[in-house]
UniProtKB/TrEMBL annotation:
Organism: Shewanella japonica
Pfam family, one: TetR_N
Lineage summary: Bacteria, Pseudomonadati, Pseudomonadota, Gammaproteobacteria, Alteromonadales
Keywords attached to this entry: DNA-binding, Transcription, Transcription regulation
Protein name (record): TetR family transcriptional regulator
Domain HTH tetR-type: 1-60
Amino acid sequence: MLKQQIAASLEDVFSQFGFAEPSVSQLQKACDVSLRTLYKHFPSKEEMIVAALDYRHQRYLSFLEQDTTSLSATESVLCIFDRLQQWMEQYAPNGCMSMNAIAAFPENEAIKDAVDKHKQQVKHYLGNVCQRPDLATQLFILHEGVSSVWPLLGADAFISTKITITTLLEH
């Protein structure tokens, strides 16, 4: 349980401040544990980042997977993009944390693997929800595009994306 609490605190700090700024000492203070306890669970800053990414991954999928059973495939996908907008507004003011991690640590295989796992599962989920696995890649590209431009375009990015989704799924 403590390991999950630490991962949750790490996710919050990295989401707010990025990956370069917080020192291990700042991370330790934010987690409200001793440095020894932090290193016991996550022996390096990179492992702390992977833990934060894994924790965020689970939280994000749970956020997206709220009940859409009574909706059509198109309505379900649009609902997911509504949730993505909520997520960006509430939890990702600096854009996609996964892509920010890759940008900060482009050579780190563990971080790349954590991001790849997350992105593949999101892509698979989108294909399942729309009941068109053949459109998973297109929907995933829209998902990634809108989350990438969120810091610049805000809500306008979602308006255009929803129009594109409707066109894609209804034709």
